[in-house]
Here is the input.
Amino acid sequence: MKSVADLVVVGAGPAGMATALEAAENGASVTILEADTLIGGNAARSTGYLAFQGFDMQGEQGYHDSAELFVADMLEEIDRQKSKYGIEFDLELAKVFAAESSSTYRWLVELGFEFNRFLPRPLQHSVNRMIDVTDTGMFTKVFHDALVKNGVDIRTSTRVRRLITDGDKVIGVQTDHERFEASKGVVLAAGGYQANLSIRRKYQPEYMASTPYLGTSYDVGDGHTMGQEVGGELINMTMIPPLIMVGSALIEDSIAVNAEGARFHDEAGPYDYRVKELHQQSEHLAFYIYDNETYTRKTQLINEMPNTPISAASLTELAEMIGVSPVGLNKSVESWNEILKSSQKRDPDFGRVIFPDGRREIKVGPFFASEMIVGINFPAGGFRVNRDLQVLNVYGERIPGLYAVGDCTGGLGPVIGMGGMRITPALTLGRVAGRKIALEEFETTDHLQESGQYLPGNALRVAVIDD
Ligand SMILES: Cc1cc2nc3c(=O)[nH]c(=O)nc-3n(C[C@H](O)[C@H](O)[C@H](O)COP(=O)(O)OP(=O)(O)OC[C@H]3O[C@@H](n4cnc5c(N)ncnc54)[C@H](O)[C@@H]3O)c2cc1C
Here is the structure.
């Protein structure tokens, strides 16, 4: 069977859904193909932290932000990371994202998204700009309704296997049973490669390559593989930072304790700092502790974690079951609750600034413990693209008909540690791609070539020298 549209989008996470919706809103006929039974991708399984600049919630609170400040914060994060990974950060793409992020906020609100509160990350976002969606189920429901309303053909349980080319141009995709042709382009939006151990083994040290991952098992790097087959260049593939396998929204309501039952770090601090602190504890053993109310509210996130939580009617019993000091655990919970009862804005012991919504204490039994386990969540690597989100080959030349968005791109990957910096860029640059492809309004020059990073015709020159 054969089906034809202007645009075929591979993957219905936030990047693919935003691309499809914006393209359809701009008059294109769009088919979106999703391997899973539901749309939403990892955003529907996430904590739902998003980061924007210059939006009304900031204005209401008197926070002054700008695209320039947002970009400056990203550059500081790159400085923090570049001693650990070989990084290629795409500054031009960062500028496009930062500038367009405020319109993405408005767009989401118009679609029906609701947001809750600011989550401060002072070490990475110099001004409060990260907020959480009230319910990550909106990534499935709200987008489904909007895509249907705009006539997008949504095919779930449909895994794309190969790109179809005509000469060097990508003209469609092949699934197990069907061929989908695209007159204006194919967009790779199939997420990351965290669920593919054989891809990870190529890029991660052996001891990390088989650690658990969070999120969908469909993110097996299909987009990366298919784009590579037609010559797309992958960057930042080795940046797959170890982190603790926990959704940030669970941490808001939890404390972490070691074998002495004592807190030992800012639970909501930077991802790499949390891993370092865990490794300094005896036998690298520690647990997140939370109560029944949190368990009930955040069951979905808890189920995403690698181990089933252990529960007990009292903190003392829980401590005995997990082998930590009961006296220590009771004391830690008590002093945490005292901090919450006070009006202190910063935890005096470890400088934590993220508190439970409504400063809710840990007090409603049964109590739960989830072991802190190191794994991965955010692989940074993906395709090098230009400002039009066109996939580039190793010479910096566009691959006709092929685009990439979200976790299939690599240029903004290295700022993953800031928080909220996966979903918002996926949505924002997805919108940019959708609009440009639908309207065929591309930039005439290529920022990578402008910057001298690539010289057109490199391949030819090498061939001439070889002769
Ligand atoms: C537990 C957790 C918490 C997170 N919290 C946050 C957060 O608070 N803030 C933040 O910014 N980021 C967060 N992230 C990361 C964020 O969710 C992802 O980076 C983001 O969803 C990437 O968007 P995407 O559209 O590129 O890919 P994805 O959301 O991964 O979507 C890709 C889609 O493509 C589909 N697919 C894959 N292969 C194929 C194929 N061959 N054919 C068809 N379909 C295919 C997949 O099934 C999936 O639906 C979190 C992730 C997890 C797992």
In short: The chain has two domains: 2-240+378-450, 244-375. The radius of gyration is 23 Å. DSSP finds 17 helices and 19 strands in the chain.
